[in-house]
Amino acid sequence: MLVVYFSSATENTHRFVRKLGFPAQRIPLRRTDPPLRVDRPYVLVCPTYGGGASISRQNVRPVPAQVIRFLNDEHNRSLIRAVVSSGNTNFGADYGKAGDVIAAKCKVPYVYRFELLGTPEDVTILREGLLRNAEALGLEAPLGAA
Q1: What is the pTM of this model?
Q2: Percent of the chain beyond pLDDT 70?
Q3: Is 139 in contact with 20 (CB distance < 8 Å)?
Q4: How far apart are CA 146 and CA 68, in angstroms?
Q5: How many helices, marked H, and strands, marked E, lie in the chain?
Q6: Sheet holding 110-115, edge to edge
Q7: Could you tell me how far CA 16 lies from the centroid of its own chain?
Q8: Which residues, including other chains, have CB under 8 Å from residue 35's CB and lie 6 or more apart?
């Protein structure tokens, strides 16, 4: 099972994805880095940016620009099977909003949201849920997975 993710310099999403224990590829942070091109179906893990936009009415985009660039590649977009988003509950209605946006635009299920670094319970719930539903989502289950 492949996890594709974006993590800012804070590394919160990176640390969460590492705990899942699945093969993972990171969307580059800088425009000068070579672009990522995936070769098999994946679940996308993405942080939410610009929390509180629905309250402030500012035109803030919840999906990081790097993720938008990655998904603008039709090949990459064709292989997304599900989305997971992180955020901050202080964002209120915008908590995990990037997942809503990506799921709607890519027509894939939004399967989980977690706060900041996630908890050990978040890791367990997501890992077990992805393994249990890999076939239904069109994801390759890792070898030896029950």
Answers
A1: 0.92
A2: 90
A3: no
A4: 34
A5: 6, 5
A6: 24-26, 2-5, 42-47, 80-87, 110-115
A7: 11
A8: 28, 69, 70, 73
